[in-house]
Amino acid sequence: MKDGEHPDGSDADALARVLAPRLRMVAAVAATGHITRAAESLGMPQPTLSRALTRVQEELGMALVERSGRGVRLTRAGRLLLPHAERALQDLRQGMTELTGAEEGRVALTFLPTLGVEVVPALLRGFRAEHPGVRFSLAQEPWAQSLRRLSAGGADLALTSPLPSGRGLAAATLHTQMLRLVVPEEHPLARGGDRARERGVPGSAAAHEEFILLKPGRGVRHLTDRLNERAGFTPRVAFEADDIATARGLVAAGLGVSVLPARPRGALSGTVELPLRGVDARRPIGVVWPEEGSGGGYEPPAVALFRDYVRRVGPGVIPDMTG
């Protein structure tokens, strides 16, 4: 493998050999019972293997192999070590397969709770139908926590909203929702009927209302705070909800108003959704990943494969399953 090239799945065993040559020596001696045959199986000269075994035994302060007739065998210490060495080699091979194999790798994915009901299962089902060997580690968490995990190297990809704009993370928009002012159906702002719902209301129309907001750290809360700031007011907070569905329910109960993504299936019974005029009321949803050059400069092939799939399929999956 040349400098600058990424390894592929066929290199997994070779890389494990680089990481654990001494373990392989012990295992080869146990398997062959002969230094020369062990050296041949390892692809090295017999004197090199002999010297290496001598060094490792000196460093450990105990004998691992001993002569037995015309061959060699493991000592009691060597026999105790052998199953651990074999497991370690297998773990290393598996680890390198996950790191280098596009069809047998692992993807660590973090995503918004609202995307975990339908969007993420739909994406995983479709992707696994094409690539059944890829495994996933999933973390369902709010926007801010999700981006922190991604930045710290605890995840490969994030499905989230809003998308970051700073250095270190790259993003691709999959779908853009519009934010709406959600009010109880008997609210004065909703009395204009269809015309009011078409024309919408200014961003400051509910400046004197009590608001139902999502808790800090949620992406919609971040967008709402920014929108209200640009509209020139600080909302009075009646309740802080954990999720969008709860906030809608509280509005339907007449407990306040809220700014939430437009509901794909229409406004929740008991509420009216009003477009916002004069403010940037968009909510982009997308996939985020470490920018090239960060995260050690290496992206496992399975991660790139899934990201490309999400960018291709996600725009058709997300619009009908969020909010």
From TrEMBL:
One Pfam family linked to the record: LysR_substrate
UniProt keyword DNA-binding, yes or no: yes
UniProt keyword annotation of DNA-binding present: yes
UniProt xrefs under InterPro entries: LysR_HTH_N (IPR000847), LysR_subst-bd (IPR005119), WH-like_DNA-bd_sf (IPR036388), WH_DNA-bd_sf (IPR036390)
PROSITE patterns named in the record: HTH_LYSR
GO cellular-component term (any): protein-DNA complex
GO MF annotations, alphabetized: DNA binding; DNA-binding transcription factor activity
Keywords from the named record: DNA-binding, Transcription, Transcription regulation
Originating species: Nocardiopsis sinuspersici
HTH lysR-type domain ranges (all copies): 23-75
Domain of life: Bacteria
Name of the protein described by the UniProt record: LysR family transcriptional regulator
Annotated family: Belongs to the LysR transcriptional regulatory family.
